[in-house]
Structure formats: C-alpha cells, structure tokens
Specification:
With 315 residues, the protein is an alpha/beta fold. It contains 11 helices and 14 strands. The two termini are 30 Å apart.
Amino acid sequence: MPEGAIEIKDLRVDYGDFVAVKDISLSIPYGEVFGLVGPNGAGKTSTFRVLATLMEPTYGEVSLAGIDILEDTERAREVIGYMPDLAPVPSDLKLWEFLDFHADTHRLGNGKARRERVDECLDTVNLTSKENAWCKELSRGQTQRLVLAKTLLHRPQVMILDEPASGLDPLSRREMRHALQRLAQGGATVLVSSHILTELAEMCSSLCVMNEGNLLASGTASQVREQLGRKERTVRASFLEVTEGVKSWLAGDGRVTEVRADGPVLSFSLVGDDEAQAGFLAELAGGGFGLKSFVEEGSSFEDILVEVAEGNRGS
C-alpha cells in the first residue's frame, strides 16, 4: 500500500454504537502541507489520534513514510511529529530548557550537538530571541510556536498538527504558516487540522473535507469544489465603462445571478460546466460592451466549509 507519505485505507473508528470515522481512504504525497478540515464533530480528531498512534481504529490500514503504524507502532513513532491542540508547556522552565529536556527524551546526543539542534528549532519558529525567557512569559502564539519547535526536534518525516493556528493573531498565523511551508519545502509532510478555513487557506496547498465521519472530497480548492458538485463560480469582469446595456444583457442571461457593480467592475455568479462558461465569456467579449478583462474567483475554502456545516453536502 505505501506510496505517499500518508496512506489511509478503509479507516473506521467506532465509539460503541457511534461511528466517528466511516471507512475513509486518503493518500497524501511527500512534501505537502495538507489540510484536514470540517465542522466540529466531523471526525478530524479521531482520525488524528489514530495517525498519531494514540488509539487503534476499529479497522483499516494506515502507513506513515512507508511504515505500517499498526504492525510497527514504535518505529512509526520515530517518524511522527504530533502537536495536539493547545498543548501545555511548563511555566518554570526557560524555552531552551524545555526543548533541551525533550531533545534528551529523543536521545539526540548531549552537549554541543544537542544544543545546536535546540537552537535550530528555535530559529525555525522565529523564537531565538526568546530562548532565555520563561515559558510562562510567552503569548499564546509564541507558546504554539514553541510546541511546534518541540515537535520538530527529532526531524519527523510526517507532522500531524491539530488546530495549530487556533486563536492566533494574524502575525502569529503568518509566522506559523511560513514555518510549516519551509518544513514542507525541506521534504516533510505536514497534515494540519482545523475547522477554520481561512487559517488553512493561508497554509495549505491541498485539503480534504470531512463531515459526520465521511470524507467528502480531497485535492486543491478547485478540485474540492468540483467534487462537491459546485458548478457555480464567481467572475469579476472589468469594463471601460459599466453601461445599462451590459447590465441588462447579464440580467437577461439565465446563467447569471447576483450581479454586483463596483465602479467599472461587475461581479456575478455564473452557472455551467467549463464549456458552457467558455461560450458565455466569448459572447460577453464579443458583445461590444468594452470588456477589458475578467477573472474567475471560484469558491473559497470558507464557502466550502459553510456549505458542508449547513448540511448541504454529504449529510
């Protein structure tokens, strides 16, 4: 089965009569920042607990970096970096002491080599200037980044991060995003969970959407939109001048809804497959309306999650 960094086949998790994860299968390649998203109760945490070897599934197969986590759990843990939601840190240690302690638990040598690895991880999360600060003095964003640094110490090939940006301010989210993207560029695979799509839109190149234990779709945002059956997309068209003629033409076309004007730009929703939309845009361009340019905005990650949470898909 192993091909990607994370391979999941027919994974199921039951809690008595309640089915939290319903026979999902997923393949995630190496070097990817991949988002696992869905509303609360979607099955994200149960999936993460299985991947982090914290619980056994009811049945299914999972491999991480080519290692079967159920057959060879201890070896799998050597390649996993797991960051739970709001992991606690001790208040009575300095940052470097906290990381040095965990470096020792990973048997990362001693003396100079171990301290160099601690310094590298602090630098990765932009906390070098705080190395002698007490953990209790950190902001929430700094604490999250410190826990990420701890997760990096043993150079894991697969990182499993549960809500790593939850509650962070914009600056902290940006720093977290940059850190994760650098890790992926270095070859690590990063799996990130969140119920807040705007956070993942900033971090991830691909994602999957879960709801009520089901895997609804996976891929890029565009691919997910198509898999969820969304044939409607938003188009922004710029004109030399927005005339009553072009507004009337759009209003009379059954493929167009929700026309909105903003100076020389019209935004509207357009329904139809790629061929139908190409034909529509050719008609618009040839209609003598002074069309300068147009761009498709598509469905945002946030749109997708709102639709899923409202129960319009996969319920």
